[in-house]
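Much of our argument rests on the idea that a fold can be written as discrete symbols. The record that follows shows the chain in one-letter code together with its fold in token form.
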Amino acid sequence: MAAIAGGALFALAAAFAQTPPANQSLTDNPVFKKDCTGCHGKNAQGRFMAGPSLVSDKVAGASVDDLRGIITNGKGRMPKYTGKLAAEEIDTLAQEVKAANKK
């Protein structure tokens, strides 16, 4: 019985570990830091000859579903992150990119 309770506690802790705090910004997200800064820069403003700025009129016009689809399936030179990131991580990134464009 203790093994089952311990396993459930571990699964619950793992789920919460992937959910960022509500006040976390895109550039504070550990997933962004690890997987996105190489192309989009530490401040999400893009990098010359790499990824475009994630804070722009073009990105601001995209829906969260559009952003989620681009992160999941890739687009142009953007690689797909399906299978590399959890669905929750992709959803969080899409929401944070959208929120970064509302400031």
Observations:
- Residues 2-18 form the longest helix (17 residues).
- Residues 22-100 form a domain with the Cytochrome Bc1 Complex; Chain D, domain 2 fold (CATH 1.10.760.10).
